[in-house]
Amino acid sequence: MSATTTDIAVPRRPGVLKLILRDPGAAVAAAFALAIVLAAVFAPWLAPTDPFDNDLSKAMQPPGSEGLPLGGDTQGRDMITRLLFGLRVTLLMGVAAVAAGGSVGAMLGFVAAFYKRLDGIIMRLMDVLLSFPAILFGLAIAAIFGPGLFSVVLALSIATVPLMARIVRGAALVVMQQDYIEAARAQGMSDARLIRRHLAPNCLSPIFVFATLRFGQVILLGSALSFLGLGAQPPIAELGAMASEGRNFLFFAPHIAVIPSVVIFAVVLAFNVLGDALRDALDPRLRV
Amino acid sequence: MRKILGSFLLAAAAAMPAGDAAAQSAPRDTLVVMREIDADRYDPHRSTARGAGEIIYMMSDTLVSLDWDMRTVRPGLAERWEVSPDGKTYTFHLRRDVTFCDGRPMTADDVVYSISRWVDPATRSPVRWRAGPVKEIRARDPHTVEYELTEPYGELLYQLTLFFASVIDRNTVERLGQNFGVQGFNGTGPYCWTSWTPRQEMVLTRHPTYSWGPPIYQNPRPQVERVIWRVIPEANTRLAAIQTGQADVTQYIPHIAVQQLRNVPTVRMSQQPNYFWDHFMGFKVDKPVMNDPQVRRAINLAVNRDAIVRATWFGNAAPADAYLNPNVTGFDAQAAELVPQYNPDEARRVLDAAGWTMGPDGVRVKNGERASFLVYGLQTAEARRYLEAIQADLRRVGIEMRVQLWDATVGWGRLATQEFDAFVMSYPYISATDGFSLYFDSANRPTPNRMNWNDPRTDELLRQARTALSEADRLAAIAQAQRQIAEANVWLPLARESLWVASAQRVQGARAHGIYGVALYKGLDIRLTR
Questions:
Q1: Of A140, B166, B371, B433, whose Cβ has the fewest other Cβ atoms within 10 Å?
Q2: What ipTM does this complex have?
Q3: Is some CB atom of chain B closer than 8 A to the CB atom of A248?
Q4: What angle do CA B38, B266, B206 make, to 5 degrees?
Q5: Could you tell me the mean pLDDT of each successive run of 10 residues in chain B, 530 residues long?
């Protein structure tokens, strides 16, 4: 048999990053997200003051006061410092919830797609979980374990599980019909290995896209829970809690509520735009 | 794009939940009162909330009433009364012109029924003890009630001014059963129950024949046809409503707005200088770290009360430099001097001397134990603010305070447990003996004596303060109790709230009273000018 290979010049597929950066909106969002992550990681070095040390004589100083470019909060602490540390807690909360909820959800999704017998049970269970709003989970968990970051992360993780499971199952079902899965099966590959080597890697793009989008939502939900007083307890800085603290002074010192709210808005927007761009870049159907 | 817009709206909603100020300017005969929360029911013997009290005071009357000075007991349903020489029997002579809202005349039997229902263990009133050691309450004739005690109880008349001692109609109670105060009410007050939409509004209508108001008012009769108590949870909405005249009266003014409102020409402000509603932190004296009196003393020394109170209440509260308000009956000035005042250097010295040495993480250690404690409280804007400030002050002297704030729905349950080391709370009281008996009597463990303060000497002093026949003896005993508690630093007294009532331009005669935290009390002098 003569091995004949036809040389068709396939244009090299551009990298995901390149695809994202093609869209100016997405490029800005990506840059902003990166800046936010860096600011959060290096908060202890960037922050001008100690995040917990108060000075009540500077309480509620407006932005632009001496030594306080963004003003002081109700305890007279520098808003910039509180924002940096708040960002840190907020992002960490988002990462933890998406990682924990996402991995459990993805696992369940693979299992449901792979084992037809379990599919019905798992997915009905997910439907039950989906019927509870995340805020309700937060309230219930805070009532059991007490308000705090742990409760918030747990509630958001649980709320993420069914969403991730649905998406992963859908993606996995498509992959399951591919010939290479049949081939691998014919080779006698074990189920676990099959999932790990062939199924999971081919479902990665929807997982990434969803995780990015979910990250934005989780931050918003987490901030909402903190705003209700279920999240970060004093003196921990958290964006939602900061906004909540300032709510009582909207007429008197609006910056205390407005600045953290704007930051929440910007972070959520950035990750949503990034997630959309990521989907456009990774979804083959949308590729021209 | 829809997702982006959605997330923006959600973010905006999370940042500033606008209240629903649907209130329109009410007609001339209708007074709209705003409040923060509703009560679960309006049964004087089953509710202890201020939210229940503010409406029960309008719908019913008590045997005696309390004057604006918060000291003098005045006639109510009883026009006069006598106390027997042994201090055990109080004889109340009732007015003869009193009727219930349904028109039935009120007699001594109704008083006997109401007080008996209050003290009946089957009613399970949480404040039964306030009625004193009741032996028997009987009607000598249709207009005379004898209130007999097993031992003297100097606080009785004060306690009988509280809304728990309200006279209610037996027939209505029996007809409604568990739903008394939920589906209806029948009292002798200036206003009658008309309708209640829980968590929205309570509508009351003028009691047509009412003319037996307490003598502390200029008018013995109500001046307004209808009163609507509207629940507006959001402070900024209340603030806007009172300034625009959408609502008429409120006592629930955000602290930061009080000074501003005083400068608004369309808003009238009335203050009650004799208002006894205090905030404090209590220490569980049998828990590790908290069981060291020197730590409790150091905490008292380390906290800059003046600055914290200013930053939390913006001049709308006074720093509590003692356990009680100096204007209250039974206050002891000598005990007040024993309460440590702000001196962080002294706090550090006290801790050093007690063997608490600074650890590597900035928290002191003694015998391997960190100077760290957990404080519980209810989730309020004030608690969060002052706790954060206290936290910072304590950190400076090497004490770590961990904070856990609970939503009121689960908070009261958590505050009854032993899982925390300290707690913050605020409470109303009418006398020194009232406040101290509530919190420091060992019989009141685990709540409200959440400090687990268990000292036979205190118990004995409190007993004397309640039962001694002469006023001098009672005052001496309660003074001694105050000194003992102050020396042991069982609390960190924080703040004394001020009471203000804001009323819109068309309202006259809205004066702040403040009994049990209730500002309007009977509200008899309130008139609407347009």
A1: A140
A2: 0.78
A3: yes
A4: 45
A5: 41 39 70 93 92 96 96 96 95 97 96 96 90 95 96 94 97 95 96 95 96 96 96 91 94 90 92 94 97 97 95 92 94 96 97 96 95 94 92 96 88 91 94 94 91 97 94 95 97 96 94 95 94
